[in-house]
């Protein structure tokens, strides 16, 4: 709920959904199709958050993953990585700051 309210407050585009995490870089339609065969509602694939999610789950700690997705494995990018990096850094900073400010107000 916190992340979603901050997204609305900042008027950012965001997707809430299943993120698959693994030890392989997904770089094409075929690997993505294999993942979607098992997880048809997957919204993103990444390589870092699963360990964090697992530890939080074990300790009953709520968590949120805030990701900037730079490309989609089965389509062409409409922006260079360098262009995206500027946008992603700005939006991620805004998002995390908004979340921290909201949490600080709650005490």
Structural account:
With 107 residues, the protein is mostly helical. The chain has a single domain, classed as Nucleoside phosphorylase domain (Rossmann fold, 3-Layer(aba) Sandwich), CATH 3.40.50. Helices cover 51% and strands 8% of the residues. It contains four helices and two strands, in the order H-E-H-E-H-H. It has a two-stranded parallel ribbon with strand order 1-2. The radius of gyration is 15 Å and the shape is globular. The model has no long low-confidence stretch (mean pLDDT 87). This is adenosylhomocysteine nucleosidase. InterPro entries: MTA_SAH_Nsdase (IPR010049), Nucleoside_phosphorylase_d (IPR000845), Nucleoside_phosphorylase_sf (IPR035994). It holds the Pfam family PNP_UDP_1.
- The tally of helices reads 4
- What structural category characterises the helix and strand content? mainly alpha
Q: Which shape, going by the Cα principal axes?
A: globular
SSE string, helix = H, strand = E? HEHEHH
Instruction: Provide the CATH top-level class.
Output: Alpha Beta
Query: What's the total number of strands?
Result: 2
What fraction, in percent, of the residue positions are helical? 40-55%
Number of domains: 1
What is the typical, i.e. mean, pLDDT?
87
Question: Over all CA atoms, what is the radius of gyration?
Answer: 15 Å
What is the CATH homologous superfamily assignment?
Nucleoside phosphorylase domain
User: Architecture in CATH?
Assistant: 3-Layer(aba) Sandwich
């Amino acid at each position: 709920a916190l992340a979603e309210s901050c997204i609305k407050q900042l008027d950012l585009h965001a997707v809430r959904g299943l993120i698959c995490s693994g030890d392989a870089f997904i770089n094409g339609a075929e690997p993505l199709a294999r993942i979607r065969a098992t997880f048809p509602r997957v919204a993103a694939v990444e390589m870092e958050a699963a360990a964090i999610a697992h530890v939080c789950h074990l300790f009953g700690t709520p968590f949120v993953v805030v990701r900037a997705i730079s490309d989609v494995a089965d389509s062409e990018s409409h922006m260079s990585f360098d262009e995206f990096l500027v946008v992603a850094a700005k939006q991620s900073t805004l998002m995390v700051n908004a979340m921290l400010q909201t949490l600080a107000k709650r005490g």
